[in-house]
Amino acid sequence: MAVLVGLDIGGTKIMVASADREGNILRRVRAETSTSLEADLANIDRMIAAVAADEEILGMGAAIGGPLDWEQGIVSPLHQPAWRNVPLKALMEAKWNCRFRVDVDTNVAAIGEYRWGGLFAERFLYLTLSTGMGGGFLIDGKIYRGQDGAHPEVGHQSIHFRCSNPSAVQCECGVSDCLEALVSGNGIRRIYGKSAETLNPEEWQEVAYNLGQGLRNLAALYAPHVIRIGGGVAVGGGERFVSAAREAMQEHLRLVPAPQLGLSHLGYDTALRGAIALALLK
Amino acid sequence: MAVLVGLDIGGTKIMVASADREGNILRRVRAETSTSLEADLANIDRMIAAVAADEEILGMGAAIGGPLDWEQGIVSPLHQPAWRNVPLKALMEAKWNCRFRVDVDTNVAAIGEYRWGGLFAERFLYLTLSTGMGGGFLIDGKIYRGQDGAHPEVGHQSIHFRCSNPSAVQCECGVSDCLEALVSGNGIRRIYGKSAETLNPEEWQEVAYNLGQGLRNLAALYAPHVIRIGGGVAVGGGERFVSAAREAMQEHLRLVPAPQLGLSHLGYDTALRGAIALALLK
Amino acid sequence: MAVLVGLDIGGTKIMVASADREGNILRRVRAETSTSLEADLANIDRMIAAVAADEEILGMGAAIGGPLDWEQGIVSPLHQPAWRNVPLKALMEAKWNCRFRVDVDTNVAAIGEYRWGGLFAERFLYLTLSTGMGGGFLIDGKIYRGQDGAHPEVGHQSIHFRCSNPSAVQCECGVSDCLEALVSGNGIRRIYGKSAETLNPEEWQEVAYNLGQGLRNLAALYAPHVIRIGGGVAVGGGERFVSAAREAMQEHLRLVPAPQLGLSHLGYDTALRGAIALALLK
Amino acid sequence: MAVLVGLDIGGTKIMVASADREGNILRRVRAETSTSLEADLANIDRMIAAVAADEEILGMGAAIGGPLDWEQGIVSPLHQPAWRNVPLKALMEAKWNCRFRVDVDTNVAAIGEYRWGGLFAERFLYLTLSTGMGGGFLIDGKIYRGQDGAHPEVGHQSIHFRCSNPSAVQCECGVSDCLEALVSGNGIRRIYGKSAETLNPEEWQEVAYNLGQGLRNLAALYAPHVIRIGGGVAVGGGERFVSAAREAMQEHLRLVPAPQLGLSHLGYDTALRGAIALALLK
User: How far apart are CA D248 and CA D226, in angstroms?
Assistant: First the structure.
């Protein structure tokens, strides 16, 4: 049986899976990301061979950190310093002789959730809350892109926040007051001096309030039907965290209908499943 | 010559104009808004008759305050309490025997600026800064609508603001920390105890900073090519105000390209000109 | 477990199914269409109750013959004369207390094939070849609608056809030379005096040639990535018929890339599965 | 005053104009197309300098015959054999230091008619009937593109035609029965042995009938609000020709609403005016 191949290439690990045309995963493998581009690429080729298992590959898709040129398929993931201007699409299409598509991990995750996550929403926003914060916005199932293909940066909006340690709010992008600096794993570590898992209830509440303010802005500007949140911080915080964020969102939202808000249905596989969808895309 | 008729129905005044198919205004009239629906409607009919001047009317378009149902053409403009659930489209089409289209004033203004304002931008945001604050976002020239047709409410986002009188920040929507409460005419009056025209340079600077933070959020979430700002506060503040807001926006924007930002090219006629465009819409 | 409910309401039979959020069918029932609206509606209610099996219904979707008003949900299926201006959406939402969406069967089938048929194509055309001929065209997964919501009528195009009995080419719409009159079940019966199943190879070849000419027009005007064909005549004709049509299409297509062409992957359930997708739509 | 520059590069002549931001032409020049690429490019540079008249150039747009890669701006116009894989965008941007956009002439003409032709239609089709036949289809003002960016080829559809000299129906694309072979200037010359201007009323009627059949297919598949026709054959045939084509279209159209049909409002400047609009595009 011919297979689709999806890749989720992250700063700490790489996941590769094969699937049938209905998106059911057939085989999957996983490896640590190295510090060498050559090692990573060789590893990826081995992983693809392993999951393809000598079947014909119908297409491949990949999720990776930005920035990247999704049309040319040239990638420079911020958190993988060895990867700079890598012509991933050209390399993969030459090697594997099938169409290869790549996009920013949050866009790919949004597609995964939309297609395989048990939803069908005309205006859909997917958020990731892990080391950093990002999102992918789909209009009628299509990735929204802005000026010259730029993707929105939902983590780099400003909100009226609450913070018990305001001087520690400092975003990695260089600006002091981004939402990402308040609610991402790295931001939490800077502000509270510990990882998200170890936050106490009051601290979780503060993080949820700030996320809720960001959600309120997203609701006001996109007026989406559904927002789903994935990524380690969100999955770790769980339903309780999402509930608190929802409450803060709704408390600040009057004129725009509140979106349905929930955790990703695909857990840690959202980007991988999205990459499989990309592999099918014509 | 057959004509288009456009109406800008506001809380304090009503403007009606006729135009040729290229949007050139032929005749225009203006009246105060009354406190009676019947008087307003009779007035509007007289104004239409005056600008049509016995020519065939090809179509009519109107801009009015929300909320409204743009498909059914039923309007309930917030600041015109006598107008509640008025089936404006049905009334006008029965009376004038031509197609009548109506939309929220900020959406209509966005269309006016897009079509007649000397620009052609794939992602375009129009903002109004007057008594309140609103906006219309066009994707490839088409009005963006969210969940079930809801339009974004760009004035009701939260930002990390600066304010010399923070306890006076209170939005009319019921939430304390909306952008509108910081930068609109009414918001300015609450905070600074005077109208926008009489602000001193430091106060203008504070308003511009806060607008800049809102623009930064809009840039981060929509990644538009162009933002144009109209409305009395913006036109009153002029290029200097816009420059200060641009500076604050750019200072806080790293990962998304900055939009081109400027004042509306159509001054106080943006919504009226947009209504004329709507009159042409098939 | 909460369920989705999908309905495929046809001129000869009604199919109703419940499914989970991933579109997997849980229970299904089927009945003959009667000649009484009341009997049909009562039947439909019983069928829904049967497949829902006391679970909460998340939403309902339906496929039915045109014409209809998809926004208001008022239907008048041509081949069900007892159904005229039936406010199906209002009736169902009042009775079942959940969102109900309905669209023309060919549009719904297109959505079914797109979402559950193992494909993901930016430009996708679904065709039905049964008693009549119709289609649904999806741009980035969204139903294409024309002037004031009109859906394309791909069966009512004209082609340069071959026919051994040209005087029998007569479309039910009143025009003599529609494609539907050449390739649909009813058209085949008029031209060849027998049903599609009993055509001899030369007759199949003629039908395939004419379908191929229609496909060539569809390819020239839509330039789609993928065309899938369903419906009794196509499924009956099978891969051999589709191959012959593909050949005729390609022979006449020069400047536009040929689409991938194949039979529906969902067989006779395409519209039913699409109705389940509609049931999920927000 | 800063200016926009538009170019209409055709097989027999090149037109270049400068305009203000509202699209009003300021200066224009025109030259014969040569048989040398170098001569043409030098000529174009001189023409641009002439119309720019030392003003700042805000942007440039160009219409040219296909095929071309509109994103990369590499052109190979069929009827200009000296132009093969010319990186026009790169050449022009390097030379003139401003954004340059190019597209197929029929797409550009569609944009010109849409923006400056006194119309505003959600589904709009522009047709050119000159030496050959082509079209550009706009959905909400945006150029429709098919598989991998391919543009529709409306002249290469098949219709059920009438022809007094059927053996002379032969399209330049290599297929015998394209609409272009029946209604374009070259097709007319092959069939009737003379140019369009010299056709007698019966011959015009036959051409109009065939065009009407093509229009019926376009109406059935796109269901547009408005179709406008330009190009020498259509402008030469005038209102009478368009009326006869409209009649044939309506006679064969039942289930889809007929579009408003008329001649281009911009005469021979449609592509040039569209190029000016492209020059403004961000």
Answer: 16
ipTM above 0.85, yes or no: yes
Separation of alpha carbons D17 and C47, rounded Å: 67
CA distances from D137 to A5, D142, D248 (A): 36, 8, 21
Residue A80: CB atoms within 10 A of its CB come to 22
In order along its 282 residues, chain C shows pLDDT tens digits of: 899 999 999 999 999 999 999 999 999 999 999 999 999 999 999 999 999 999 999 999 999 999 999 999 999 999 899 999 999 999 999 999 999 999 999 999 999 999 999 999 999 999 999 999 999 999 999 999 999 899 999 999 999 999 999 999 999 999 999 999 999 999 999 999 999 999 999 999 999 999 999 999 999 999 999 999 999 999 999 999 999 999 999 999 999 999 999 999 999 999 999 999 999 999
Q: Are D280 and B115 a contacting pair at CB < 8 A?
A: no
Chain A residues 140-159 within an 8 A CB cutoff of chain D: 147
> Token match 């996109």: residue?
A222
Alpha carbon of C150: minimum distance to chain B alpha carbons (Å) = 13
Classify burial at A1, counting beta carbons within 10 Å of its beta carbon; exposed 0-12, middle 13-18, buried 19 or more: exposed
DSSP 3-state of B97: coil
Chain A residues within 8 A of D71 when measuring between CB atoms: 71
Cis, peptide link before residue C201, omega less than 30° from 0? no
How far is CA C237 from each of CA C77, C106, C187, C198, C205, rounded to the nearest angstrom? Answer: 27, 19, 15, 10, 10
- In terms of Cα–Cα distance, which of C61, C56, C129, C154 is closest to C97? C56
DSSP codes joined into one string, B21-65:
TT--EEEEEEEE--S-HHHHHHHHHHHHHHHHTTPPEEEEEEEEP
Over chain A (282 residues), the average pLDDT of each successive run of 10 is: 96 97 96 97 98 97 96 95 97 97 98 96 97 97 95 97 97 95 97 97 98 98 98 96 98 96 97 98 94
Cα–Cα distances (Å) from A131 to A180, C9, D154, D171, D197, in that order, read 9, 50, 51, 60, 71
Is D97 exposed, middle or buried (CB count within 10 Å of its CB: 0-12, 13-18, 19+)?
A: exposed
Cα-based distances in Å from B48 to B11, B26, B83, B271: 18, 12, 19, 16
How far is Cα C53 from Cα C71, in angstroms, rounded to an integer?
Answer: 29
Tell whether A225 is within 8 A of chain B (Cβ). Answer: yes
